[in-house]
Amino acid sequence: MNYHWDWLFFFQEADDGLKYYEWIISGMGWTVAVSLGALAVALLLGSVLGVMRTTPSRLLVAIGDTYVDVFRNVPLIVQLFMWFFVIPEFLPEKLGLWVKQELPYLVTAIIGLGLYTAARIAEQVKSGINALARGQRFAGLALGFTEWQTYRYVRLPMAYRIVLPAITSEAMNIFKNSAVTYAVGILELYFQYKQIIEKTSQVLEITIVVTAIYFGLAFAMNRVLAFIEKRSAVPGLITGGKGGH
């Protein structure tokens, strides 16, 4: 293989006056911002949807199931294009113009990725709630809690502990899925990766570096949530394949 390795090219100046390693740092910052913002949206909405799908209300269950079916079966990149280019056309004219011209792309990307991931989180939360003994609900009601209070104080805290390993996987995936947002103009890590290849043709070096960064971000999220899982474990509760003693 006749390839010219040059790791020092990262310190060369690009057309905009910045060095290529600064492009990488900037892209990583955008990736973290999009991923963490979308994760917050997904956890909040996914929890609500997961609860809705376990209530006695057929209407709430139907709404939750429909949401999950739609958002899990449409590719993420198509959903992003919908939020960026299609949905604004159906809004009132002034609001649509504001969304297209004034609303930061970052916000739209966070919402799009968050809504997509929420459908997956909803599945996990539903599974966690259904895995609990029915007696927990009845015990909460017997203590005078309302139905919603039993979710908030009894069922959800325990359900999260059960599904935390699965939620950890979704949190790691969100960093990888954020790469799709380059298609709608977010200057995240993958966008900078493509730009640097076009400018320098140093494919192997930049690919190695970007791969290591994505691995590092996902692994860091894994370690943070593993720490939370360990600190929040309930003795005797089986989570992640481990049983308490």
Structure description:
The protein has 245 residues and is mainly alpha-helical. It has a single domain, classed as Orthogonal Bundle (MetI-like fold). It has nine helices and no strands. α6 (134-142) packs across α7 (147-177) and α8 runs antiparallel to α9 (203-232). The radius of gyration is 22 Å and the shape is globular. The N and C termini lie far apart (56 Å). The relative contact order is 0.14.
Which class best fits the helix and strand makeup? mainly alpha
CATH superfamily: MetI-like
Reading the helices and strands in chain order gives HHHHHHHHH
In total, the number of domains comes to 1
Q: Can you tell me the CATH topology?
A: MetI-like fold
SSE layout and pairing:
Elements: H1 20-52, H2 58-72, H3 76-90, H4 93-101, H5 105-130, H6 134-142, H7 147-177, H8 189-200, H9 203-232
Helix pairs in contact: 1-5, 1-7, 1-8, 2-5, 3-4, 3-5, 5-7, 6-7, 7-9, 8-9
Quickly list its features.
245 residues; mainly alpha; MetI-like fold; 9 helices; disordered C terminus
Q: Briefly, what is this?
A:
The chain has 245 residues and is mainly alpha-helical. The chain is 73% helix and 0% strand.
